[in-house]
Amino acid sequence: EVQLVESGGGLIHPGGSLRLSCAASGFSVSVSYMNWVRQAPGKGLEWVSVIYSAGTTYYADFVQGRFTISRDNSKNTVYLEMNALRAEDAAMYYCARDTMFDLWGRGTLVTVSS
Amino acid sequence: QSALTQPASVSGSPGQSITISCTGTSSDLGAYIYVSWHQQHPGKAPKLVIFDVSKRPSGVSNRFSGSKSGNTASLTISGLQAEDEADYYCSSYRGTNVWVFGGGTKLTVL
Fold first, then answer.
1. Who among B34, B97, B100 is closest to A50 (CB)?
2. What's the CA gap between B77 and B86, in Å, rounded?
3. Is A3 part of the contact surface with chain B (CB cutoff 8 Å)?
4. How many Cα neighbours within 13 Å face the side chain of B53?
5. How far is B26 from chain A (nearest CA, A)?
6. For A100, which of B40, B51, B100 is closest by C-beta distance?
7. Are A45 and B99 within 8 A, CB to CB?
8. Where are the beta strands (DSSP E) in chain A?
9. In the β-sheet with A77-82, what is the strand arrangement from edge to edge?
10. Residues linked to residue B101 through DSSP beta bridges, in sequence order
């Protein structure tokens, strides 16, 4: 079955760090464009980052060097390392495939609170 | 990076057709074919319903159609059904390896 499963979310204090994982099955992340998209509670979708099949990475302006997207082809998994977390980073984080976002995971919830 | 502009809400009766607009600029939505639409039911993950402006993924009802004119894309749902009640989001490539979503539209089936 083709699917994405996110994990790694949780409660973190402001300024803390967290690493999210997105495990893929049924296709290879190494030949796909893989995105992270977030959704704050009661708000809309917001694109965060992409890693291309070539391995190049890009980020939304609000990331400001705090997040790093990466992948492990042997585990068929994409990661989002988040540092210096702020209250406004609290959201459900989804991974999604390709430039058309044709496949989404169920998301992992990140809560930032002291 | 401001979001694409969508109406906050639209509504329609069963069997009717509705259209949701998504407005960008000549630098994003107006410049590329990489416009997609996503349906999200409460508490669920988004689901792709239209990609590349007007293409439908396998398994998506042909009641869903998309179009674009200038800097505005549109999603039309015909023969409205209760199950179509959801939030709908557009997305577009913005250039320089950045993507953007619309603010979302809540569709209510009366």
1. B97
2. 12
3. no
4. 13
5. 19
6. B51
7. no
8. 3-7, 10-12, 18-25, 34-39, 45-51, 57-59, 67-72, 77-82, 91-97, 103-104, 108-112
9. A3-7, A18-25, A77-82, A67-72
10. B91
> For B34, phi and psi rounded to 5 degrees?
-80, 65
- Evaluate whether B9 touches B108 at the Cβ level (below 8 Å): yes
What does the block give as tokens for B76?
A: 């039309």
Distance CA A18, CA B3 (A): 26
CA dihedral A98, B70, B2, A22 (to 10 degrees): -10
Instruction: Encode chain B (110 residues) as per-residue pLDDT tens digits.
Output: 678 999 999 999 999 999 999 999 999 999 999 999 999 999 999 999 999 999 999 999 999 999 999 999 999 999 999 999 999 999 999 989 999 999 999 999 99
- Among A112, A113, A97, A86, smallest CA distance to A37 is for A97
Measured in angstroms, the CA of B107 and the nearest CA of chain A are apart by 14
Asked if the Cβ–Cβ distance from B48 to A47 is below 8 Å, we say: no
